[in-house]
């Protein structure tokens, strides 16, 4: 194998968080003085906030990693003119550090199959470049790709789609599942990239026997040095290697022999243990979650207090819920769970509005002011930080709770719908 071959780094999540800053810096240092990092936006190309995500990546690299990042904007195969696409291809052709992150893996695959992106990336890796594929992008690089949204959100039966198989070009017959240890489901199993144990068992049965499954914990990176013989684990979690009913787990600092990713038996070594790919019986209990446990507990408290007509204490609990979401927003965004948290807040606001509407107070505005005005202060803070999507979602929450918010040249005005 050529000594020029570069590095493929797979991240379970967290590619733009504090946990991965040192990983990026170390990988960039390998490229010497002439570092040319590029970010590809295709996986999120269908999202209305795709440009915001690109700006976030630019800011992260400039202020946290210490390098200027270029954007190879390839939102879809059908948008933009030919000159724009060629400019993006030129950036990729010159890049020696390529970062791809969150979005939809199946959307990205549909677009890339109409573009020369995969061949460009493979060519750069052969010339010593580093590919960092995180979250949705990590799902695309293996022999098969998991259609996460189609199964988890839409309800389709478990299945695989053909992946880019960039790993296969370098002798690694693998499929990659990020978010391996995900726990945002709270009272239901969302491990194994939101699949849970029962669906994972079905998915593994559909794989060819020779194919290795790579499970990447969140905020964890597997650094595959293609010119070497081992891969390294960085970050805060573990990497799980599974094949033929056996798994081995590697932790931070461990060296993972590349032979295992090329089909060598996952036999046990001294001090290591083989376990079934999916254990019999129910899934093990999920550990406590500092984000979702308090959120669910507060939602239950609000409902209970409103049922007992304890409006003042329910209002305090609702404000605590809002503050908790604000304090945990970085983790929620990283887990792609901000939307779910907003749904909880929206439901509680609607419940509060319905309860207060049923009471018909003499002055509903005065009654609602202690609740609405702190929420509007939070919205103003969000707008000041250019977090437009979250600010708009909060405004929608208030609207569903019976409060109309209007931005005027003199400030924010609000009124209770129907008086």
TrEMBL record:
Q: Which InterPro entries match?
A: Class_I_gatase-like (IPR029062), tRNAsynth_Ia_anticodon-bd (IPR009080)
Single GO molecular function = ATP binding
What keywords does the record list, in alphabetical order?
Answer: Aminoacyl-tRNA synthetase, ATP-binding, Ligase, Nucleotide-binding
Q: Does the keyword field hold Glycoprotein?
A: no
One Gene Ontology term of the biological-process aspect is: tRNA aminoacylation for protein translation
Protein name stated in the entry: Cysteinyl-tRNA synthetase
User: Which species expresses this protein natively?
Assistant: Desulfatitalea alkaliphila
């Amino acid at each position: 194998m050529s000594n020029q071959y570069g590095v493929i780094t797979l991240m379970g999540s967290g590619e733009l968080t504090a946990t991965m800053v040192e990983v990026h810096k170390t990988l960039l240092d390998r490229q010497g003085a002439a570092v040319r990092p590029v970010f590809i936006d295709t996986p999120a190309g269908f999202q209305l906030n795709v440009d915001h995500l690109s700006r976030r990546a630019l800011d992260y690299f400039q202020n946290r990693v210490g390098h200027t990042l270029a954007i190879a904007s390839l939102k879809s195969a059908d948008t933009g003119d030919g000159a724009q696409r060629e400019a993006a291809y030129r950036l990729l052709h010159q890049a020696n550090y390529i970062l791809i992150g969150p979005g939809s893996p199946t959307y990205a695959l549909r677009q890339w199959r109409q573009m020369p992106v995969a061949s460009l990336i493979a060519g750069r890796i052969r010339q010593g470049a580093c590919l960092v594929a995180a979250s949705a992008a990590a799902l695309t690089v293996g022999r098969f790709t998991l259609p996460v949204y189609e199964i988890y959100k839409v309800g389709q039966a478990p299945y695989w789609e053909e992946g880019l198989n960039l790993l296969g070009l370098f002798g690694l017959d693998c499929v990659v599942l990020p978010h391996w240890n995900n726990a945002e489901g709270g009272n239901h199993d969302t491990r194994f990239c939101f699949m849970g144990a029962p669906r994972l068992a079905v998915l593994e049965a559909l794989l060819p026997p020779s194919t290795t499954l790579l499970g990447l914990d969140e905020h964890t990176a597997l650094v595959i040095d293609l010119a070497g013989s081992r891969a390294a684990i960085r970050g805060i979690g573990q990497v799980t290697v599974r094949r033929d009913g056996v798994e081995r787990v590697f932790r931070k600092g461990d060296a993972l022999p590349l032979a295992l990713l090329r089909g060598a038996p996952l036999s046990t070594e001294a001090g290591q243990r083989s376990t079934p790919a999916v254990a019999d019986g129910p899934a093990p209990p999920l550990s406590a979650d500092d984000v979702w446990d308090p959120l669910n507990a507060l939602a239950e408290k609000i409902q209970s207090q409103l049922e007992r007509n304890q409006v003042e204490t329910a209002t305090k609990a609702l404000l605590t819920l809002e503050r908790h979401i604000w304090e945990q927003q970085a983790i929620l965004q990283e887990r792609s769970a901000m939307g779910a948290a907003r749904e909880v807040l929206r439901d509680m606001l609607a419940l509060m509005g319905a309860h207060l509407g049923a009471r018909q107070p003499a002055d509903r505005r005065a009654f609602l002011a202690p609740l609405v005005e702190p929420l509007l202060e939070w919205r103003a803070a969000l707008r000041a930080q250019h977090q437009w999507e979250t600010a708009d979602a909060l405004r929608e929450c208030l609207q569903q709770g019976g409060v109309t918010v209007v931005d005027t040249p003199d400030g924010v005005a609000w009124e209770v719908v129907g008086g």
